[in-house]
From TrEMBL:
Compositional bias (Pro residues): 11-33
EC nos: 2.4.1.109
InterPro entries, per database record: ArnT-like_N (IPR003342), MIR_dom_sf (IPR036300), MIR_motif (IPR016093), PMT-like (IPR027005), PMT_4TMC (IPR032421)
Organism name: Amanita thiersii Skay4041
Protein name: Dolichyl-phosphate-mannose--protein mannosyltransferase
UniProt-listed Gene3D superfamilies: 2.80.10.50
Recorded GO CC terms: dolichyl-phosphate-mannose-protein mannosyltransferase complex
Region (Disordered) residue spans: 1-69, 813-958
Regions crossing the membrane: 126-148, 168-188, 218-238, 258-284, 305-324, 626-647, 667-685, 691-712, 724-744
Length: 958
């Protein structure tokens, strides 16, 4: 009954006649005060609209006409208590990152490269690396400020630092690693997560073992992660400002800072392009929503578009290019990297400039000839012969200016060129099809080819190129070549009609065999001084068969004859050329490595990277399993829940009308996109990859795991939520402590190490550790022979650097090794790593079964991160037969490469083992010299031989 009763409406006031001059109907007078409109009292549609913009209930971010609250910068509403808590967390992170920063006092992993690059910056020596310069410049600045003079060579892992402020150089990545911690806290708070959630994220990153290890050494990944986190922080602040009010000074500040940070992250590593893609995706999403908002006029939309284009495209590009301008200004002197650049680029370096040279080339001209494609250098010969094949004088490519690069062009169809007075002979220009000879001026031999296989590229379609003849010898038909003009220069029409210096690109075809003078990125062994191989190729690739004349002189040319020179590139020319070189070099890093890994194994933490092994300690990059696997589970959970919500939406459910669902979908979706764009592109790369490439994606995954935590605990009381977070933090700290010896290179027992191998694929070397902690305190204790501490390597193939011999450990090994040798059976003896099997990080070669036959091992380092290092490890074996290569016997004194074959490779860093000539010329077998064995006798005598050498070095060690 009561439900059907209507409440009586109050009586209307009586109508009265208004005073003269006022309208008949006037609005009621305003109330005495206007109450503050709270967001909690918005209707459902208003709440849903606010949630779609990322505004939660009670966030205080809506504009009101009355009693408007002060909006915090970037929407980061942090209380004073939170700032105090964050200060404590930063102190904790500082202690974790800086603990024992000076240990080890020797080179670790890629410090071989990046420390060396710092040396080159200080000495202004030009180099080429696959990474942009910002992080390396920051490390160099730290070393320079603390007095580093650039004279330490960083040549090998384990080399003890001398007169190097390595602690200061390590301090910079460590500080940036510490700074990442508060950024993670502030970012999640800006994304409207609770303080407990932000605290959990900051402590997860504080105790993440992989990030700790990577930030404690002279490496680039810590600056990369820092600038990635900084970019996300600035972008979060901008998005909050954009939701509040656009085009304010604060709005422009956050947007500009986001652009600068994008420039910084891509200036550390090209992985920063993935961060640009993440911000770009978010920007496109914002612009798309603005375009569909009918309340936004087109003029305002254009302003939004132009502002983002200016700050997020132009600003990062300018910053990136400015870093390379500093790079070019500092590296003004020639160095080992200028051979990667074009000739015009090289002539911009100090001391490499070239004077004007004659534009025309004629019969009798004295010329230097350069290869076009590989920038390998000048056509070169020197008075050293090939150890095999024809055993004639070597012809190579040499990257530096030298008198051995000079050749004289002579007419192959005319009279003998001997003793001609070139100043009084009529000028005869060289036209297409001219039949010529190239006479090496220093040794008076002709450029020559014949049907003999080259020393390295030993295939049927390649012929050896040599220098043949003697003073007064006119040569033979194998010295003759046809010149074919490939193309000229548009600025010089004559360059298409005849040979012109720096303008005409030509090929040389051998007159008898029809092969073309050819070179490629293959290096000769040590006997060829690691110079680039030159062959005559019947199936030559056009690009590798092109040559041009760099300088030309002729006695008959007048001094005022036309001259030419390189058109030196400006900044943009050098910038774009270096980008191409970096891209090509980066794509060429395809060699396998002992500790490389593929992207599918990274989220599961299948294996790590051996950084350093020495003194019965090891540094091994591995993440905190709890943090790592929890973040991976959160990524999978988000994908599953998002897919489930999509299916429910197809069935008509209105889950996305719920403000909580909209909020967390927006939050987790942004972090998931960041993780995806930093992870999945690596599947498209065929280059060498390592676990540390996952770290930027890991940062997003950790934030995503904490966002999932925020959602799951959103219904709990604050005290209960804090207790759950405390449990997770304690578990993370326990995992950090459990694997801390691998992060800091600390002491560990072998049993503890073995028990820590939770996965079979974790290959850190437990045999490196002592059985008991007390053994670390024993002074003067002899190192057991069966310990790889005598020689350690790590990183690239064979260790990314040369084998490091611990001489102190070797001294102690001599006496103990003699006693052990008498107790061992011959079949159980193993060769020392000094002369034996290639020692690999994380593997005790003394406890591995020895193969019946072993051969020389030569590994090349084309490492992920720049420069090429040499690793040579020779295996002892009894040898009674000459080594075979491509089905043919090696010539005496020839190079021995992998599996007895000649080792080839590019990049200027290849090296092969060589053998000295042994015996007389009559001591031959099958027409070719037999390689002498590295160590005579059975395998059982190999270790005794090593100890004999050691005794000669350290006679007092026994």
């Amino acid at each position: 009954m009561s439900a059907s009763v209507r409440a009586r409406r109050p009586a209307s006031p009586p109508l009265t006649t208004p005073p003269i001059g006022q309208p008949l109907f006037s609005p009621p007078p305003p109330p005495k005060y206007t109450p503050y409109v709270r967001e909690d009292h918005l209707d459902a549609d208003a709440k849903r609209a606010a949630a779609s913009r990322g505004l939660g209930p009670g966030s205080g971010r809506m504009k009101h006409h009355h009693h408007q609250h002060q909006y915090p910068p970037g929407g980061f509403d942090i209380t004073s208590g939170e700032w105090k808590l964050l200060f404590f967390v930063v102190l904790l992170a500082t202690g974790v990152r800086l603990f024992r920063l000076s240990k080890p006092n020797s080179v670790v992993f890629d410090e071989v490269h990046f420390g060396k690059f710092a040396s080159k910056y200080i000495k202004s020596q030009y180099y080429v690396d696959v990474h942009p310069p910002l992080a390396k410049l920051l490390i160099t600045l730290a070393g320079f400020v603390f007095g580093y003079n650039g004279h330490f060579d960083f040549s090998e892992i384990g080399k003890v630092y001398e007169n190097v402020p390595y602690v200061a150089m390590r301090l910079l990545p460590a500080i940036l690693g510490v700074a990442t911690v508060p950024l993670s806290y502030l970012t999640l708070r800006g994304l409207d997560c609770r303080a407990t959630t932000a605290l959990l994220a900051s402590l997860f990153i504080t105790f993440e073992n992989g990030m700790i290890t990577q930030s404690r050494h002279i490496l680039l990944d810590s600056p990369l992660i820092f600038f990635t986190a900084l970019t996300v922080f600035f972008w979060t602040g901008f998005c909050n400002e954009d939701k509040y009010e656009s085009f304010t000074s604060s709005w422009w500040t956050w947007l500009t800072l986001s652009g600068l940070s994008l420039g910084a992250v891509v200036s550390c590593k090209w992985v920063g392009l993935f961060t640009i893609a993440t911000i770009g995706f978010s920007t496109v999403y914002q612009l798309w929503n603005l375009l569909g908002d009918m309340r936004v006029p087109p003029r305002v939309f254009v302003r939004h578009f132009m502002a983002r284009a200016l700050c997020l495209i132009v600003v990062p590009v300018v910053f990136y290019m400015f870093m390379f301008e500093l790079h070019f200004l500092i590296l003004s002197n020639p160095g080992d990297g200028d051979g990667f650049m074009s000739s015009a680029f090289q002539h911009t370096l100090r001391g490499k400039s070239m004077g004007d040279t004659f534009a025309d080339v004629a019969i009798g001209s004295r010329v230097t000839i350069r290869h076009v494609n590989t920038q390998g250098g000048y056509l070169h010969s020197h008075p050293h012969t090939y150890p095999g094949g024809s055993k004639q004088q070597q012809v190579t490519l040499y990257p530096h200016q030298d008198s051995n690069n000079d050749w004289r062009i002579v007419n192959a169809t005319g009279d003998s060129e001997m003793n001609l007075d070139w100043a009084n002979i009529p000028i005869s220009y060289i036209t297409p099809g001219s039949r010529i000879k190239l006479r090496h001026i220093a040794t008076e031999k002709h450029l020559h080819s014949h049907d003999i296989r080259p020393p390295v590229s030993d295939v049927d379609f390649q012929n050896e190129v040599s220098a043949y003849g003697m003073a007064g010898f006119a040569g033979d038909l194998n010295d003759e070549w046809y010149l074919e003009i490939d193309h000229g220069d548009k600025r010089d029409s004559e360059s298409y009609k005849r040979l012109r210096t720096l303008r005409t690109t030509f090929k040389l075809r051998h007159a008898l065999t029809g092969c073309y003078l050819f070179s490629h990125k293959v290096k000769l062994p040590e006997w060829g001084f690691e110079q680039q191989e030159v062959t005559c190729n019947k199936n030559a690739v056009r690009e590798n068969s092109l040559w041009y004349v760099e300088t030309a002189k002729h006695e008959a040319f007048p001094l005022d004859a036309p001259k030419v020179n390189y058109k030196l590139p400006g900044f943009f020319g050098k910038f774009f050329e270096l980008q191409r070189v970096m891209w090509t070099t980066n794509a060429g890093l395809t060699d396998r490595h002992t500790y490389d890994s593929r992207p599918d194994s990274w989220p599961r933490l299948r294996r790590g990277i051996n950084f350093w092994v020495k003194d019965h300690r090891q540094i091994y990059l591995i993440g905190n399993p709890l943090v790592w696997w929890l973040s991976t589970m959160s990524v999978v959970a988000y994908v599953a829940v998002r897919g489930f919500l999509i299916l429910r939406a197809k069935r008509g459910y209105r889950d996305f009308d719920n403000t909580k669902v909209v909020k967390y979908d927006s939050l987790c979706g942004f972090l998931f996109i960041g993780w995806s764009l930093h992870y999945f592109p690596f599947f498209l790369m065929g280059r060498q990859l390592f676990l540390h490439h996952y770290f930027p994606a890991l940062y997003f995954a950790i934030l995503l795991s904490c966002a999932v935590f925020d959602l799951l605990t959103s219904m709990l009381r604050p005290k209960v939520r804090l207790q759950v977070a405390a449990v997770l933090i304690l578990l993370a700290v326990w995992h950090y402590q459990h694997f801390a010896p691998l992060a800091y290179g600390g002491t560990w027992t072998r049993a503890e190490c073995e028990s820590a191998k939770w996965l079979k694929t974790w290959d850190f070397a437990c045999n490196e550790f002592y059985e008991q902690y007390g053994m670390y305190d024993t002074v003067g204790m002899a190192t057991p022979v069966s310990t790889t501490g005598l020689a350690t390597i790590g990183g690239e193939p064979g260790g990314r650097a040369a084998v490091v011999v611990d001489e102190e450990a070797l001294k102690g090994a001599v006496g103990a090794g003699q006693q052990q040798q008498q107790q061992q059976q011959p079949e159980q003896q193993h060769t020392s790593t000094l002369i034996g099997e290639k020692a690999e990080p994380g593997r005790d070669v003394f406890n591995q079964p020895k193969k019946a036959k072993s051969e020389g091992v030569v590994k090349e380092n084309d490492g992920d991160d720049g420069g090429v290092e040499k690793v040579v490890s020779a295996i002892t074996q009894p040898q009674t037969q000459p080594m075979q290569a491509h089905g043919k016997e090696k010539e005496r004194g020839g190079p021995v490469g992998v599996d007895g074959d000649r080792q080839t490779g590019g990049g200027g860093g290849d090296v092969t083992t060589t053998t000295e000539k042994n015996g007389s010329e009559e001591d031959k077998e099958g027409g070719g010299g037999k390689l002498p064995p590295v160590v005579q006798g059975p395998l059982g005598e190999a270790q005794a031989e090593a100890e004999k050498v050691a005794q000669e070095l350290y006679p007092d060690a026994a």
